[in-house]
Every structure is written in C-alpha cells, then in structure tokens.
Amino acid sequence: MKTWVEKYRPQKFTDIFGQDEAIEKIKTYFEKFPKVKKKALLLGGSPGIGKTTIVHVLAKETGAEIFELNASDLRNKSSMTLKLKPVLEQVSLFNTKKLILVDEADGVSGTEDRGGLSELISLIEKSPYPIICTANDAWGKKVSDLRKKCELIELKEISPAIIKQILKNILEKENKEVTLNVLNKIAINSRGDVRSAINDLEAASSLDNPEEIEIYERNKKEDIFQVMKKIFQEKADEKMLGLFDKVDMPLDEIMLWMEENISKVYSGIELAKAYQRLANADLFKGRIYKQQYWRFLVYENIFTSYGISASKEDEKKGFYKYTKPERILKIWLNNVKHAKRKTIAEKYSKKTHVGMKRIMSEWNEVKNILKNPLVQKELKLEVEEIAYVMKY
Amino acid sequence: MTSEIWTEKYRPKTYEEVAGQEDIVKRVKALTNSMNIPHLMFAGPAGTGKSTLALIVVKDLFGESWRDNYLELNASDERGINIVRDKVKSFARTKSLGNVPFKVIFLDEADALTPEAQQALRRTMENYSSTCRFILSCNYQSKIIDPIQSRCAVFRFKLLEKKDVTKVMKLIAEKEKLEIDEKGFEALYEGSEGDCRRSVNLMQSTAAVSPKITKDLVNTIISEAKPKDIKLVLEYALSGDFEGSKNKLLDVMLKESISGQDVIKSIQKEIWNLTIEPEVKVKLTEKTGEIEFRIVEGSDPFVQLLSLLASFVLAGLGK
Fold it and tell me: Most CB within 10 Å of its CB: which of A78, A156, A233, A259?
C-alpha cells in the first residue's frame, strides 16, 4: 500500500500549491535552455516544500526524460562521471528532451563523495541538457561554488492555511475525518513542510481517537542565526527550551555565539540581565564537569535560551546583524604570538627555582631583566626568544 | 658561575644569610645537623625564603653532590599527580650518593594539588620514605590535607618585615653600585607587597632603566607592569558602554597575558578608586567576590567577568 505522501504526490503543476512564482521561473528556464544566463538551476528551501516534486512534474508535463542522482547514490567524482557522462554524450533515441536532477546537492558528503561537487560544476559547463540541483541550505558553504554556476530559485515555505487546504483535500478523497483542532495542530506544527504534515495526518486518521495524538514538532534543523533571532528578538516562550536541539552545534559553542551577540541587540538593563544569565549557565556548565552531574544541563539550557530571551522587555522588531564568535580565535592568535613567552619562562624557571606560572603572571616585572644580554646568554635563549623579549 | 639574575646571584647560601625567620632557621639547622631530617613543610607567603631555605638544607646535607640528590618539582606547573609520581619514582629508584641515606625532593606550591592528588602524594611519600625526604612548600597550610601535615615537621614562614627586605635591597644596591634613596626603597617594598623576591626583581627591572633609582622611577615601572587598563574597562562599563568595556577587557587580558583571577584582583582594588557612592562600592565588591568565587570554582573566567561588567553597567544606570 502506498503511503499518502506517495499516493497524493502532485502529477501536474496545477496540483502544486503555494509555489507559483518558482514554477514560472523553472518553466521559463527549461523552455529557453540552452539560451539561458546560467546553465543550471539551484532550487533552495527547507524539506517537504516540493523541490523534487516540481522537477518531476516538469519532466512529466514537458515529456522530458529524467535522470536523477540523489543522496543515496555515491557521488564522488568517478561515480558521478560514470553515471552522467553517457547521459550527456548520447543523443536520445527518440530525440526526446532530457533533464538531469541532482537531488540534495548539499548532502554530498565531504569525505566519501570527494570531488563530486567540483565534477558536477565542470559537467554543468559542458552539458547540452538542463541540470537542476536542489539543496536545503542553498546558502551553505558546501554549495557555494555550485551556487555561483547556477541560477538560484528559493522556494517558499507553505503557509499553514494552504497546508490545511491540502490536508482537507486528501481527507475528502480518503473519506476520512479528523477534528478541526487536530487539523490545525498538524498544519501549524508542520512549519511549512507539506510532506511531514501529510505523514502526521495519515498517522492521526488511523487512530480511534485522533485528539490524543501528540504531534510533536518536527525536528527541523535551524541554523544558529535563526535561533539567535528567536531568542534575542521574540518574546520568551517555553518552546525556546528545545531550540538548541535543532541546531547542529554543541551547547558550548552556542554559548560562545550568545556571548558574542547579546550586546548586538540588547542594551542597558536588558544587556546586564542577559549576561548575568549567560554567566549562570556557565556556572552550571562548570558544575557539570566538576561533579559529573548531568542534570545540571537543564539549568544550563534554560538560562542560555529562555533566560536570555526573558531579559528583554518587549519583542525586538527589525534587523540586527549577528556575527560569529571571535573570542576563541583571538585567544588562539594571541597564544601563537606569545608562544615564546612560555619557553622563556621555562628556562627562567629552571634557573631561579620559581614556578613557570608565577613567572608568566609576573612577566611585566621580569621582562626588563630579560633584556640584559648577559641574562639572555645565561638562560641560553635562542635567537627568536631574544627577539621576542626585545619586542615585548 | 654567578648568575646575572639578582634573585639568584644574591640568594642566601648559608643559614646565617637568610633574612628574618630566625626561629625557623635555627630549628631547621638543628634538624639538618642530625643528618636525618623528617619530611618538612614550609608554609607561608611568597618571597619569604621557603625555596631558599630548602636549597640551603640540601646543600648542607649533600655538599658538592647536592645536584645528584635533589629533585625540584613545581606542583602548579606539573599537571597532575601522575607526572609527579613518575618523576619521583625514577628519581627515588637509584641510591643516594654520599653519606646521607636518602635523597630530597622539593615540591614547590604543593597547595596547588587537588585533595585527590594530595592523597596520592601521601602514598608516594610513604612508599619512598626509606629513600626519599620531601620538603613541601605552600602558601596556605590549611590547603594541605591533614595526613600530609601530620607526616611533616611544619614551619610557618612570616611575611618579612620592612626592615629585613630593605636590608637585603641595600646590600644588593651597594654591590651593584646603585644609587637609591629611602623613598626609592620604600616604593620598591610597597610595590612588591612584602615579597622579597619581587622587590629584588623590581629593583633589577628599574636598574635596567637607570642606576639612579627614585620613587618616581619605581612607580613608573610598577604602573607599567600593572594592568593599568582595568580602570578604563570599569569606566566604560559605568558609563554604559558595555561593548567598549568588553572589547577592552579582552584586549587587556590578551595583551598582558593576565588570567581572569588577576583581572578580578585588580577590579576589586580598583573599585576603591572609582567615583561612586559608598553603597554602590559595597554592592559591586559583593558582586566581585561572588564572581571571583565562581572563577576559582572553575567557570569560564571571561563569561563571568562579562557578567560582572554587566553589574557595573547597572550600577552606572543607578540600578
């Protein structure tokens, strides 16, 4: 038995809702090919909004033969060439049109699919047929080279109202019913992902009492910028407690992002409160390490998300420029710069029966002594170490 | 070969030369004469003669061959007791040279060891007691676990009196042909907070600039050596410029390579120099103490300091 998602996959453009603009652009590209500015398309957008479906419908409606590469195919350089070369070189028997779909181009793994993307880029330049790529994160670093070669079309997330309509149509055809309450819940929680909404609906309709279904929020990946925007700008909400689970980043690193960006949005009392809460989170982090008592993680998380969010009085509308954390980089650069200090302190320490750490912390009191050439000779300082001493 | 570093060049070589600490010197000397010392523990502030006395003891015991029979370790540098144990083991394995039946290990800053590490150290002391004597030095006796204390003869070093430190400095000044007036000596003593080793370092640092040392010159060197920008960090915060304050803080910490604990120490002192209400001073000091506690406890110093700066911003706003 087919799942509803398969069963109701759109077969023609009129079946697709909410993507009219993108569909027009794609049609135009396909018709004009190869007289187009950029030889390939990159469809960007979150999962379940119809990227792959649109391409399949395009093939169907134009009668083109479709060749698909997706995440399940190994896509390193040789296998990519192996699969695509014949397609590109042979003329179709019945002179039909061809269309190449590279699905989930951003899912190409960095190690196993080595060289895959660069091979794709060179194929694009030579290809006599249209190539359409899809990606969830069209702005990601992985596809940045590819993006330059492609015309980027970003698909919109589907609004809950349209999703509700799609779900209603399916229920009608299936002759099933769920309450309006359940329908609303599914539509809202799907967050623009039609596929997940249909899956949830199928699950709900099979229950005796659909009201009971707990439709948890779909695990949609969010990037750190979206998360910061929510926390810093939106009203504090319990849902924020789960925000960090959706970011592909350890909490320690998230805290660095927070540290860097609190002052970009908050000021005055809000700012002070937010930093105090971040410090509280850090306090619990330290306690976790020390006591190996992992329940403290709850507090670390609450302070970092909800706590920082609740530091402000009102929502913050408008655009704020968030930046990458720089502290760790600065510390690293500084350590490189002052690496000699350590080796010098080590030599000085052996001579004077004083701990290295103490020497480092009293550096300013001994550095003048180290400028004496006789002392340098006595400590057997090397040329670079002498240069360092004279400079700092 | 004499050293060019004055703290070494003028380090006392006999019991008689040690500044201050008369009672301790007398008792330690008596112990050493018996040629069988117990484990020793020297507790007291920095720069009061702990390492010096330990060196004198080993030289007195072993004479010329002291280097072969003596191992010096620094607990705050040697990370983890395992390294200490390994070094102790390989050192204690071979027999001592000369008439003394044991070797001596000097473990400096022993209070930097965690209580767990100290437990391990205690075992090590027991296991090698027939071939090794330990001399432990620490700033705070209370940070050493009782079982270790009870195995040692404990000596509490007092902070050197001003006259003792000045005597040391005057001796060196004469030998190095420096010209220093009373005010200059006073500044050197005050600047190093009674730490004799630091006074001598400070004197050599100042002498590197000019052999004629005055109070002003000393103070110039001191203020250069101190993280002077901390005050600026606080002033930015009080004026409400958090971002400026934060950037300055990171800048200072990196440029001067000072730790979070050094910063918080400076902040605590600097609060007195700020033009704020007495009530606010108390509140900020309270907050500073809490933050210092957190840093000592192992939190991220920078994040904690940011939250302290946030408190200064609030104080500046009158909240």
Answer: A259
